[in-house]
Amino acid sequence: MLKIVKKTANWILDNLPGSRYIVFESEPDLADNTMAVFEEMLRRNLDKKYRFVWWVKDAKAELPVYSNTIYVDRKTWAARRRFRWILLRAKCVISCNKFLNGGRSSIPSFYLTHGSPIKRVPGYSLPEGITYTLIASESFREVMVRELKGDNGSFFALGYPRNDVLTCPASDLHPYWEGSWQKVIVWYPTFRQHKNGTKTGSANALPILHDAQKAHQLNECAKACGVLLVVKPHFAQDVSYIRDQGLSNIRFIDDSFFKKNGISSYHFVGSCDALVTDYSSIYYDFLLCRKPVAVVWEDIQEYRENPGFAIDPDFYMKGAWKVYDVEDFMRFLHSVAEGRDPGLELRDQINKIANDYTDGKSAQRVVDFIAERAKLSLES
Asked: Whole-model pTM?
């Protein structure tokens, strides 16, 4: 009897007027793999058949207007209650930050992840209700299963949709900043120390540039090389000790930069001439660009101990320029300015392991996969 009641209730919910929601979530809002899937669904006119719902921090914030798309926030009790009702009537749930489940077991939940891990992710565990989890390559299946503690059969390797823009032609970055420079290097340091005092791996908010003097030294080198160094620190880091120096060739950005200029973070990154990072998954993604990469190696021993690595960084980063101090950093600036990239061949080998797809069509593959599993109609 209980099974009959449950089946009847599910049928009613599935066939109620308007019960054709597709739910999206990301961090920041409208970003990452989820946003790339959302845009692909718009290109296929799925908004004509389904109601799109974004779960956001603040639905009253200035958010873009899309056809048949609504925003529901996490702030108020009434909004959260409304969202729970939407989840009960959803066709599927697509997220890449929070482990967001459907309101019923029959509703598939697609977790698109933050990317392939370099560091260990202790404490992470895929909860019950996540139906499918995206990975970038079959070679990383074992790593992702181990780090996320998920069921091997629920992982699907189709490439990350956010990476499609990395295979597109670069945009001219000169309109964004004044000054004379020929190359742009973007620096994405990973989280180290929160401004509230908590830390992971390192005691420094920003590696290499521990004080204003070193920042000025690197700035003078960048200026001499005709290089603009754009730094996007983790939002929790306090880098005011450098930002307040008003340096000519070192600029800081945050997520508001992309919103203001109408450009996605990965479109911007793909348009830069080189990347500096450390233990972030953006390293694997940027391999698709086939441009110079440096990794900050100053505190690798601390990271080996806490939180540890999900992979062997010495192998996977063998083609990246190692930066232990400000002198190494300056040598990398000179190398980029001169158009050299000695580690390209080695990185191409790693790219074949980390990224199964380099065709810029991962969003299409993922939407096809979601449509099949969620029984979405793709017919026009």
From this structure: 0.90
